[in-house]
Every structure is written in structure tokens, then in C-alpha cells.
Design brief:
Length: about 375
């Protein structure tokens, strides 16, 4: 059995793929099937170590974004995508996988088009409330469609779509408190806020947090994942803002957090501040209340839809960018941190929103379709 995964452009596409692959290995072991050959096709491997650790073979296929506004890069990216389609057709012809599993994103287009050309069955998984362009197109010919939000069901053919929720990797599902305070150099006596900017960081979150920092660290300690490219700038600004501040050591910055650091950060935090991408499902799996700040302009306004879908469960509050000021951020954090009952209710709602069996459900579908194609 050969299974090809595709998707790319961000960790929001890459890591759920890894979560599905982990569940695939479990199901195959339980059902005593022969281990499949698993491939990942994208414009870049994203994380070579994770692919290696999960025994996944990378296949390159360049791809470019098609922007909704005029840009000369649209022309160069169109050429890049054309090259990627040719590479994908060539690779898939010789691999001939039994199924192509797509998480969407511009980088999945070459593999999906090649799969359609060769009549290889496709399963897509949509992480957002509103599907991206590639998944919306692929949904027309996919054999099966899995979605993370019930609201996304309406965008796809009813006879193909199933609500599964979003898979989260085994490595970060369970918060760890033991040893976390020592590992992160935190105090056990001060409430902790965990700020997640994503792998690339989020400038508006970084800027607003910094502006509110002198107030925040007067009462709380902060774990701030800034994004690798933003770490030096954030640290430089923080050192000026907190010069001679006796609580400066309460502010901990990280460009990137490894899996253990994520588990430990979630293990000691009472509140999370985050964007409205796939991280929502990680936060839900931890059962921690959150403040979610959606990107104002995202494809199909999907981040705003994601945020308010999550908020309707009672697990978070939403702060839109137009209202995301330092004073309001401090006021909302203070209000939540001062009310243990609200935070407890939000944490329970988060756990109810989580979908711990999502990866298993998708893995079972993948194997069923692949075995049927093998015959």
C-alpha cells in the first residue's frame, strides 16, 4: 500500500498530516496490515526531522500562490506551479499511490491535479470553517471529504463529506506540569499566560503584547512564542520597555517552541492568547480558556469564522484586530484571570470542543479507500 499526503505552506497544514500518519500507523498495527509506504509531496519538506521520525519520504513539487490582488509574482508563481505539476505528474506516475490525502493549501495543487489525471482516489481534509481555493476545487472530485468544523459541511457535496474534527499530534496533546516551572524558569506562585504567534509569529499580537507588557508583568508571568524572525526585535523592544522593571524576568520569549516546551507551557498556563488557525484545536485539546485574535483579512474570512465558531462553544473570547488595543487586552486578561469560575467553564467547553478521535477517523477512511483501490 502506498499513501501520498500533500499540503503545505504552513504548520497548520503540515502538523495535522503528521497526526493522521501517526494514527495510520496505529490502525495498521491493530489490524495487522502490511506497513504502507508513506510519502509527502509539497514545495518544501517543512520539517525534515519530523518526516524522518515518522518514516515519511519527501517528494518535491514546486508551487506558487495565486493572489486575489494584482501582483507580478502571480505570473512567476504560475510558472512555478506549472513546473510543479509536471514534477508531480512524473513522480506520481512512477509511484502510483493507492490514495492521495490532501490538507489543502497552494502546495497541494500539483499532487491533486496529477491524482485527477491518473484517476487516483483523493481524500481531502479541511481545517477551516470556510474551505481554501484548492480544497474547494478538489472537493468536486474527491472520493471523501473530512472537515474540522461542522459549518464547513455546507461547502461540499453532502454524500461525500463527514465531520471529523481536527487531528492533533500525539506529542503535544497532553499538557505537562511536572518539571515545567524549572524547565521554563517560571515561578509557581504567579499566574501564567501563554501567547502563541504561530511559526511565523503575528506582528499585531507581538506589538500589542509589548505595549501592554509593563502592566501585564505586574501581575502575571508570560510565555511568548514570537516567531523565529521576530525574536531579536521583540527582545530589543522588551529590554527598553522593561529597563529597571523589577518584574522583567517574568517575561519569557521564544522564537520557536519544541514539542516538550509546548506541552510544558500548556501545563503551567491558565490562559492562552492565539490566532484562529489550527492552533485552536491544540488549545481545545489542552482544555485551557483562550483569547483568540483572528486575522482581519483571510481567505473567505475563515479565521474570523473559525474564531466565532469556537467562541460559540464557550471556550474562548474573540478580540478582533480593530479592537485589539493594549488597554483592552490587559482588561480582558485581568477579567478572566480574576474569575476562576469563568475560566473553569471555558476550560470545560474547550475540552468538549476538542476532537481526540479525529485522526483515527480519518486514518480509517484513508486505509479503507486505499485497500479498495489496491484490489
Amino acid at each position: 500500500m502506498k499513501i501520498l499526503f500533500t499540503g503545505g505552506g504552513s504548520g497548520g497544514h503540515f502538523y495535522p498530516i503528521i497526526a493522521i500518519i501517526q494514527e495510520l500507523r496505529k490502525v495498521i498495527s491493530e489490524e495487522k496490515l502490511i506497513d504502507p509506504q508513506i510519502y509527502f509531496m509539497s514545495d518544501k519538506p517543512y520539517n525534515k526531522k519530523v518526516l524522518f521520525d515518522n518514516e515519511v519520504i519527501f517528494k518535491s513539487a514546486p508551487a506558487g500562490k495565486i493572489r486575489t490582488y494584482f501582483s507580478f509574482r502571480n505570473f512567476t508563481d504560475l510558472i512555478k506551479t506549472g513546473v510543479g505539476v509536471l514534477k508531480a505528474v512524473f513522480s506520481i506516475y512512477f509511484l502510483f499511490p493507492d490514495i492521495v490525502v490532501s490538507k489543502g493549501g497552494y502546495a497541494s495543487f500539483p499532487a491533486l491535479l496529477a491524482a485527477r489525471i491518473f484517476g487516483i482516489p483523493v481524500l481531502i481534509h479541511e481545517s477551516d470553517s470556510v474551505p481554501g481555493k484548492t480544497n474547494a476545487w478538489a472537493g468536486k472530485f474527491a472520493k471523501s471529504i473530512a472537515v474540522s468544523y461542522e459549518d464547513a459541511v455546507k461547502f461540499f457535496p453532502k454524500d461525500k463529506v463527514v465531520f471529523t474534527g481536527q487531528p492533533v499530534r500525539q506529542e503535544i496533546q497532553t499538557p505537562i506540569e511536572h518539571g515545567a516551572y524549572e524547565y521554563l524558569n517560571l515561578s509557581k506562585d504567579i499566574p501564567t499566560i501563554f501567547i502563541i504567534g504561530g511559526s511565523l509569529g503575528a506582528r499585531i499580537i507581538n506589538d500589542t503584547v509589548l505595549d501592554a507588557l509593563p502592566q501585564l508583568i505586574g501581575e502575571f508571568q508570560i510565555i511568548h512564542q514570537t516567531g523565529k524572525d521576530n525574536l531579536v526585535e521583540v527582545n530589543n523592544r522588551a529590554s527598553i520597555l522593561l529597563e529597571n522593571n523589577p518584574n522583567a524576568s517574568r517575561y519569557k520569549t521564544f522564537g520557536y517552541l519544541n514539542d516538550l516546551a509546548i506541552q510544558m507551557s500548556s501545563g503551567v498556563s491558565q490562559l492562552v492568547l492565539s490566532r484562529a488557525g489550527s492552533t485552536i484545536f491544540e488549545i481545545a485539546s489542552w482544555g485551557i480558556p483562550s483569547i483568540i485574535v483572528p486575522i482581519t483579512e483571510s481567505n473567505g474570512n475563515h479565521q474570523r469564522e473559525n474564531a466565532f465558531n469556537y467562541a460559540r462553544s464557550g471556550a474562548c473570547i474573540v478580540m478582533e484586530e480593530k479592537n485589539f488595543s493594549p488597554n483592552l487586552l490587559y482588561s480582558e486578561i485581568k477579567r478572566l484571570m480574576d474569575d476562576k469560575k469563568i475560566r473553569s467553564d471555558m476550560g470545560k467547553a474547550a475540552k468538549s470542543f476538542a476532537s481526540p478521535k479525529a485522526g483515527h477517523k480519518i486514518a480509517k477512511q484513508v486505509i479503507e479507500i486505499a485497500l479498495e483501490h489496491e484490489k
